[in-house]
Structure formats: structure tokens, C-alpha cells
Design a protein that fits this description.
With 469 residues, the chain is an alpha/beta fold. It is 43% helix and 19% strand. It is built from 20 helices and 16 strands. The strands form three sheets. It has a nine-stranded mixed sheet, with helices on both faces. Helix 2 crosses helix 3, helix 6 crosses helix 14 and helix 8 packs across helix 15.
Length: 469
Amino acid sequence: MRAENPWWDGTGIRDDYARMKRRAYFERFLQLASQTDVRRAVVLMGPRRVGKTVLLHHVIARLLEDGLYEPRDIGYVSLDQPLYTRLSIEEVAQGLQGACGGTRIPRMLFVDEIQYLADWERHLKVFVDSHPDVRCVASGSAAAALRLKSVESGAGRFTDFLLPPLTFYEYLDLQDKAGTVEYYPGEHTVIEPENVAELNEHFVDYINVGGYPEAVLSSAVRADPRRYIGADIVDKVLLRDLPSLYGIQDVQELNALFMTLAYNTANEVSLEALSQDSGVTKPTLKRYLEYLEAAFLIKVVHRIDHSARSFRRATRFKVYVTTPALRSALFGPVAADDEAIGALAETAVFAQWFHARVDLHYARWRTGRVDREVDMVHLDKRQKPGWFLDVKWSDRPARKPDELTGLADFASRHPGARVLVTTRTQLRSLPRWPGPGSLSAVPTSVYCYAVGRDAIHDPPSARFWRAVE
């Protein structure tokens, strides 16, 4: 325990953690973790390798820098250490007190990899109730167990914080390249890329390796993402975490399903077709989809019709991997003009929104014999479209907006909503198109940057739309 808490001796956090740049989510998580007026534990959730342990140590460093706590008032323990097997959180806290020679248990307790503690949610709830003067922050990588059990058992005692894979803004920020896009302060923020070609090069890199801090900062990981991302993240979740949590017997069946979904990210699928192709029953497929989504490997997006109504029997839906880097790690990197780049660009757009609690759908309907689709539709509290967009990795929509018939049809049915089409390089208004009013066109890379930036620095607002109108 003394080795895990070097700040007790006045040396601060470990050098390797101290040298790492803080994720852009740091300030938001720090504010939540350091609140002492609310008697709740904070549960930091997220997929593997997104930087949860590093984030905890960065919070500890800031608390020490600000002088809010004495070094021995902060205790950290990682429960993946075999020596702590079968110890309760209470016993861990008492052990930290003895290890640091204090007269009381630490006032700030960080418990990493909490999923290694059986019935962790019950232990955490009892600890929070028994020690109202101790602020407890827990984290873990077995995201399925954390999300499901925190919802079931932690009502009123836990506050969840989701740390997603890197957004495009964070990807640039970690490399000190966020200035590639200029933000001009003022009531109407203007977004103007200095060099769209350069930004798009970064965006393609983001699609290939940009979901995880390790891949961004390590040349070894960037050189072999299939080994480090595919094996360390996907295999451990599919072959170890999910089978142990849910008693899955046929691991190969689950693995084959995920590979199919990852390869076809951003495409519409149906339970019927998946069942026929895999030989797995539809009830089992539904459970597998729930498990994969709870583990933050995929996101299921449901379909609505042209009137923005949901279907009673949701047999068709879209599935996205939670970061396009997952797909690239499994099946190889893509270039800017590869056939798969369109689906991965759409996946990247959705990935900027996965951590936000917004109601996103896609619209698909038939007019005569023609299928029409809108890639992303946001429904407001009245379940009406507030905004919607089509994702394109091409400048053709700016040259020939008359071809956007599906977007125009949907816009004519919902005239109060904002409409957007993403392009490869074009940032301008398109007044002459088949739909009502004007259509905003913006490069996909700029849109992803803006959504990721606003998610961290500002609450959701209409500033982005003002910039492109």
C-alpha cells in the first residue's frame, strides 16, 4: 500500500503518470470527484485503456497541489492486486490507515479496478453509509458489471461518470494540435479551419488509431494497433470479462457476432438476418447485443420513420463500434479514399456523441420503390426532431445538393428543425437545395472537432449551428 501511495512520503504521484498529459475531461471529473457536500460515491466507468487509472492519479496530484488534503488523507488502492483478494472496502480502508500510520482512515479514498471485488456495489453502498466524512471514488474496466450494477444497486449512493474513448478534439489536444481549428470568442462563435486538408489528415489518423491515449502517445502502439488495441481491449472483454460476468459458454459465438458487427459498423442490420447467418437464436442475439453495448464496445441506434415515429417491433437497427479505431485495429487501417472510409466517418460522428445523454436515432422509410434515409436525428423532449444530418465523406453534396432527396423530404416534414450535411472540405451555406430554407454544409472533421470540444468546455448549445449558417 505504501508503494501505491508514494505521496505519503512527499514524492507526489508516480513519475510516469505525472508526465502524461491530462485528458480534456480532467476538469469536469475533478469537479465531481472533489465535491464533499454530497454523500455519494463517484463511479468512473468506461472501456478498457481509455485512461481511467491515469485520470485518478491526476486528480490526486491536483488535490495535493491545491493543499485541500494532507498527503496521508488520500488513499489509493487497485483491487487487481492479488493480495487484496476477498478484502472488503472497509478492510482496505483500515489497511490504508495502518500503512500510512494515520489516526483515521483516509478522507479521500480511491478504489481502482473495483470489479475485482465480489458484490462491489453492496460493499460500496455500506461504506458510503458508514463513513459520511469519507469521499470515495471508484473505477473499473469491466464496464458491463459497473454500469448494470451501479444502476440496479446504487440509487441515491453512486454518481456515474463515463470516460469515453478519445473524441477527435481530445485526439488533437493530446498532441498539442487542437489549434488546427480556430475558435473565435464572442456571442456567435465562428469555426474556421486553417487548413482543411491538414485537419482531414489528422481525422483519418484518428479513425485508424485515435480512440485510445496509448495509441496516440506511443509509437509502438501506433505501429501495431491490431496487437495492442485488438488483443488488449477486444479480446480481454470478449474472452474474459463478458463470459465471467454473464456465464457465456460459447465464446466463439459471441466473438463472431462482434466481428460481424464491427466490420459492418454504420450499416443497418436485422435480428432475422443475423440469426440466419450465425445460427444463433434471436433471444440469444438480443442478450449478446445488450452485453456488448454494456461493455462499451458497440452502440445500437434505433430506427424511426419519416414522421419521427419509432417502430413497435424494432427488428432493424444500426450498430456502431464506439470508436472507429476499434474497426481499424481489427481489420486494418484505411486511407482517405478507401471504400470503407464513409462508414468509418459516420462512425466517428456518432462516436463524438456516445458519451452525451442525447436521444439519437436514424430515419429510414420508403417513398414509392425508393428507400430514403437520414443518418442522424436528434429527438427533443417532445420526441420531435430538433436537428438532423447526413454524413458524407465527399464534396458532392455541396456541388449537387439536389441529390439530397432523403434529407430534403425529411426537412419538409419537420420544418422547425436544423439541417446539416457533412462534406469532405466544404464549409458553407447551400441556399439552393430541394428542402425548405438553406442547408448548412461543414467538413466532417470540423463537425467532429466542434462536437467534442463543446461536450467538454460548454453545455450543448446552438453555437455550432450559428457558425455555419
